[in-house]
Write a structure and sequence with these properties.
The protein is mainly α and 408 residues long. It has a single domain, classed as Growth Hormone, Chain: A. Helix content is 81%, strand content 0%. α14 runs antiparallel to α15 and α16 packs antiparallel against α17.
Length: 408
């Protein structure tokens, strides 16, 4: 009877509330817009560099500080929505994002840019677990797929939108942020109109104590997923930190537009792959992702060395496909093992691993570039590391499959 009442409380709409279908779409759009906002500054880094004269190390620091702030938020607030509900967390996070966009629009130096990235990281980290868990609350079948497809979709949309606005429209450091600020305000209104998807429970204050743990049922699946998560998100970190400078240095492209198109090609192919393999066996999907990451990274590094712009974008598409498949397979392996009041916490642990892989290699690469190592050589070493991690992940999954077959 208790479970029946809980489900009824979870899914009964209050007067004027959104239908479950619209609520699901709203939650998916929040992940898209949050990740779009996170990548929006990337095509603008060359503009900021020209105005404020900062180095390649500063570029990677601005990128890395966002990832670190997001990690801190995931560790502190990642489980909060399991206790107080999804809606309060998401209302605050979306309004914070609107404020962050105004901070970006009015930034007048690197300090202001870094502060905006820190606040953005906190808002995004608090929201990621809540929105993914909320989608699973509403639809157990589509929730894991949506959790996997929306991050690359948001990343691609953000990069392309920023690149096009910067290249073709006036006020490049203003317009993209104002557009996104309006989106976040509208989403906050939508969350206010949405019914809560989980019942409240005690322990909200205790959940704020930083922790990095998983329920017993999720631990073995997470061990399987970690190698491909690290490999795929490390490659994403390359696109978020060094690609703008590489497209200018190697190919002579306008970095604002070229990096936006590259981000869209990488993340867009990832999103398409997630949808294409939505019904595939998760471990098989992860194995494909690892193989595509090896091939895509090798093609990408070869194209940068040649140099070949066509090869660069083809490698980008293949690597993005590997990113999408690897992330989708990992999420579908881990997330369904969590109970309703564990979902945000489990998804937060997944994203902690992802953003560590995203941020740390990018910061290390920026450090070496600032110490005199050539940009192209740094990127190629970065790519070799990603290919090696992907190959190890593939070998591990294939070995595990053979062992499982022998046991049968």
């Amino acid at each position: 009877m208790k479970d029946t009442n809980s489900r009824r409380a979870t899914h009964t709409a209050s007067a004027g509330a959104l239908s479950p279908k619209l609520a699901f779409l709203l939650l998916a759009s929040i992940t898209v817009s949050f990740l779009a906002g996170s990548l929006a500054p990337t095509p603008l880094y060359p503009v900021y560099q020209a105005e404020w004269g900062f180095s390649a190390l500063t570029t990677t620091e601005i990128f890395g500080i966002y990832a670190l702030a997001l990690l801190g938020s995931l560790l502190v607030a990642g489980r909060l929505s399991d206790h107080i509900g999804r809606r309060p967390v998401l209302i605050v996070a979306t309004l914070m994002q609107a404020v962050v966009m105004l901070m970006f629009a009015t930034a007048n130096g690197t300090a202001a840019l870094m502060l905006a990235r820190v606040v953005q990281g906190f808002a995004t980290g608090a929201a990621l677990g809540a929105v993914g868990a909320g989608m699973l609350d509403l639809d157990k079948a589509r929730g894991p797929i949506a959790s996997a497809v929306t991050p690359p979709l948001g990343t691609g949309v953000g990069g392309l939108l920023a690149g096009l606005l910067v290249h073709y429209l006036p006020a490049p450091t203003l317009l993209v942020y104002l557009v996104l600020a309006v989106v976040f305000v509208l989403q906050a209104v939508g969350v206010i109109l949405m019914s809560e998807t989980v019942t409240r429970r005690a322990g909200a204050v205790a959940s704020l104590v930083p922790q990095f743990s998983l329920p017993a049922a999720a631990r073995a699946p997470m061990l399987i997923a970690v190698p491909v998560l690290i490999a795929s998100w490390s490659l994403a970190g390359l696109y978020g930190s060094l690609i703008p400078a590489l497209t200018r240095t190697v190919f002579g492209f306008d970095p604002s537009l070229a990096s936006g198109i590259a981000a869209f090609a990488f993340a867009g192919s990832g999103a398409v792959t997630v949808l294409a393999f939505g019904s595939g066996v998760p471990r098989t999907v992860m194995a494909y992702g690892a193989a595509a990451l090896v091939a895509g990274t090798a093609a990408l590094m070869g194209a940068l060395g040649a140099p070949s712009a066509i090869g660069f974008f083809l490698g980008t598409v293949l690597g993005g496909s590997g990113f999408g498949a690897g992330f989708q397979g990992a999420v579908r392996t881990v997330l369904p093992t969590a109970k309703a009041h564990e979902r945000a916490g489990v998804l937060s642990v997944v994203f902690v691993v992802c953003y560590l892989a995203l941020g740390i290699p990018a910061l290390v690469a920026g450090f070496f570039v600032s110490r005199g190592m050539q940009l192209l050589a740094t990127a190629q070493d970065f790519g070799a590391m990603v290919a090696m991690l992907s190959a190890l992940a593939l070998v591990g999954m294939l070995s595990g499959r053979r062992a499982a077959v022998k046991r049968q």
